[in-house]
Amino acid sequence: MPLDLYYSIISPPCRVVLLFAKWLKLDLNLIELDVLKREHYKPEFLKLNPQHYIPTLVDGDVVVWESSAVLIYLAEKYSTDDTLYPKDIALRAKVNQRLFYDIGTLMRSVTTYYHPILMGGEGKLEDFKKVQDAVAVLNSFLYGSRWTAGEHITVADFAIAVTVAALDGLLNFDFTVYPNVHRWYEQCKRELVGYTEITKEAAQKTQAFLERFREMRTAEQQQLCELQQQDHQQGSRELPEDKQSDQHKQQYTELQTPQKPRARDSSKTVSPDDKLADEVRSDESSKMSTED
């Protein structure tokens, strides 16, 4: 009986599960969700996963989400040996640490830096420095080690490999200055089953997704501006003439008074409207399917 996987290939965590399932030669029933249409909020999906996250795996009566949890479940149930997710406590702790590093450090730094770019602006220099620092840590993990947690491939390699591929594809990151990462990354391309095909398909569909996303954002912002203008005109009509005059004077004074620069405005690289980005960050993260 095939396993159901609710996914979107533009989501790196979803690609992790697709890649690992290929390695295990598992039969997946792929159910693709369009996150821009908010299909992951449909009642039938929320019954399976109240957090509305993808990927979500359904194996009979078992429902698992969070890509690292899915990897561990698949390794423990379907792997023919324990090298992918060791039974030895010390080795397992090392693999877990690598998984948590990917979620909490590497992927987080990439997402933080890329979010302003997604919104049509530029990433911050200090955020890019955090990406470089995260890759430097990965480089140290791989010193004298064939894979991220030792001489055998583990679930951690699948997770980190997809994050690195996203970093490469989105930011054209130069890995040559991190020789251990560069060597390991080329090795992943050669040895992980379906890696090149999955990455290529994801790159194509991500481009189309970003175009749709930006069109939606532009339309939403235009609609918001029109509503604000209507509210302003309605409020002006309702004010007596003397109040309107006072209001116009106040607005003129505010426009002529220079505002004190905020600390983040002094950075070398300026992101788009930070307030707008903060307001939409939670919803956009779900739309981009980096939620996992």
Approximate helicity band? 55-70%
Backbone shape: globular
- Helix and strand run: EHEHEEHHHHHHHH
Total DSSP helices: 10
Q: How far is the first residue's CA from the last residue's CA?
A: 25 Å
How much beta, percentage-wise? 5-15%
Mean pLDDT: 81
Structural class: alpha+beta
Number of strands: 4
Q: Profile the largest sheet.
A: 4 strands, mixed
Poorly predicted runs are 247-291
What is Rg?
23 Å
Sheet with most strands: strand arrangement: 2-1-3-4
What's this entry about, in short?
This protein is an alpha+beta fold and 292 residues long.
SSE arrangement:
Layout: E1 3-7, H1 12-24, E2 28-32, H2 43-48, E3 56-59, E4 62-65, H3 67-78, H4 89-118, H5 125-141, H6 155-171, H7 179-191, H8 195-238, H9 241-256, H10 274-287
Parallel strand pairs: 1-2
Antiparallel strand pairs: 1-3, 3-4
Helix pairs in contact: 1-3, 1-6, 4-5, 4-6
